[in-house]
Amino acid sequence: MKAVLDITRLLRRAAQATPTGIDRVELAYARHLLKGDAADVSFVARLRASTWYLDAKIVRPFIETQALRWRLSAARVTRRELSTIEQFLGQPDGSLAAGLPTTTLRSVLPDMLPPLQRLLSPVNLLPSLLRRHRNRGMVYLNVSHEGLIAPGGMRSLVRGQAMQPVFLVHDLIPLTHPEYVRPGDAEKHQTRMRTVLESARAVICNSRDTQMNLASFARARQMPLPPAVVSPLGIEDEFGSVDVPPHEGAPFFIALGTIEPRKNHLVLLHAWRALVEKLGPKAPKLLIIGRRGWENENVIDIIERSRTLSDHVLECNRLPDAHLRRLMRQARAVLLPSFTEGFGLPLFEALALRVPVICSNLPVFRDIAGATPCYLDPIDGIGWARVIEEYARPDSVRRPAQLERLSTFQVPRWSDHFKDVDQLIDSIATPEEGTSLLAGWLPSLDRSKAWTPAGGSVTGASSSSTLSAFSPHESSTKSVAVSSANDSWPGRIGA
C-alpha cells in the first residue's frame, strides 16, 4: 500500500483542544497508515506556501500525541457540570461519574510543542528531495478538503511528483444548502469540488447521497466524474455495548450536535413547549449536548429565557465521551432533526450503542441506516411532539419495535472503511504488470460510459470491477461498484 497522506489540517488544528468531525477522519487515516510498512507510507503538509515532505517516523510522535491530547481533552468536565445534569435528570449525586475514569485537568494534557518542533525542524528540509523522489507514483490522499480552493497549487503538488490523487468527499452542503453556511462558503466549496473533478484519479464518498450530489454537480457543469467508491465512515470501537444501570428518574431524550440552524433545534424546543403545556411536570426532559455554533440566537434565547421550558430543557456544551455514552444508553431516544447532513456520525454512534433514534427523513440517513430509525419530516413539529410522547411512555409500542430492529443492525467500523480504501490504493499505486492503471478492479476510465450506483452492476464490466463495501443496515456485505460517468441516479441503499 503506497500512499502519501496530506496532514495539513491536523497540523493547522494542532493547538485545538477538541477535534471536529473532519479532524477525527484525518486522524483515523493517519493512524491507520502508520500501522503499515513505513517504507510504503509518507506524509505531506502545506504550510506558509511551502510543501513539507515528511517520513512516517517523524510523523508518528505527532499523531500519537495529538490523539492522546484529544482523547484526554474529551474527559475535561467539572464536578459541578456533572452535578447539574444529575439534578436535572433526577439521578443520585455522583451517579453519572460512578465507575468511569476521573476527569482530566488542563495541566495534564500532553504538550504539542515538542512533536511539532521535531516535525517542522529545518533538518527535515535536507532530505526532502529524496522523499519527493520516493513519492513518485504513489497515491496522494486528501481526506479533509484542505487546500482544494487553490487548484493550481494542488495540480503542482500531485503532477510534479506524478502522484495519483484520491479525495474523500464529505458533503456538498454549501452548494445544496447555502443558507446553512457562512457567506462565501458556497463559492469556496464550488472551487473545491471543481478541483476534485479536474484532478482526482478516484474519489471516496462517505455515502451514496454524497456521490449522487457530486454527480449532479458534475453534470450541471458538464464535467467528467472520476471513478468513485462509496464506503461509510467508521466509528471508534468505544461505541459498542455499554452496560449501565437503568434510569429511574423522569424519561429523557438527547439532542446531539452543534447548536446551529442546520441542526434544527427549534423544532424540538417548540415540540417540548407543546409537551409541557399538555403533560405539565410529567413531560419528558430534553438534554441538548453540543457546542454553540453560529446564528443560533433564537435557539439560545428560548433555552435561556423560556420559563415554560426551564425545568425540562438543559443545554450541555461539553460532556466526556464516556459520560455521553452512559447517558445515551439511558435515554429513551437520540433526536436528530437536521435539515441536511453530510453523513451523520452521531446517528451511527447511537445505533452502535443500541439506542433508538428519531431523526429527519433525509436521504443520507436512509442511505446509511436503512429502515432502523424512526423518520420524521424536520418541519413537522406536531409529529415530533407526538412521537416523542409515545417513546417516553413505559408502554410504548414503537420504541420496542425499533429496539428489535437495532438488534440486527450492523454498524461500520473504521476497519470496514479501510478495507475498501486499502484495496483502492493498491489498485492505483501498484497495478499488475502489463495492465493499465486501475484496470481489472476499477471500471474503465473512459468517462463517457454510463455509471451505476454503488451496489449496482457495471455494464460490460467483469466481476473484478466491483469492491466489497460494507452496507451497515444489512446483515451481509454487498458488491459496491466503483462508478464513473454522468447518467442519472437510479436508486440508493435503504430506499
Automatic annotation (TrEMBL):
It comes from Ancylobacter crimeensis. InterPro entries: Glyco_trans_1 (IPR001296). Residues 454-495 are annotated as: Disordered. Residues 454-471 have a biased composition (Low complexity). Residues 473-487 have a biased composition (Polar residues). Coiled coil: none annotated. Residues 247-370 form the Glycosyl transferase family domain. It comes from the Bacteria. This is Glycosyltransferase family 4 protein. Pfam families: Glycos_transf_1.
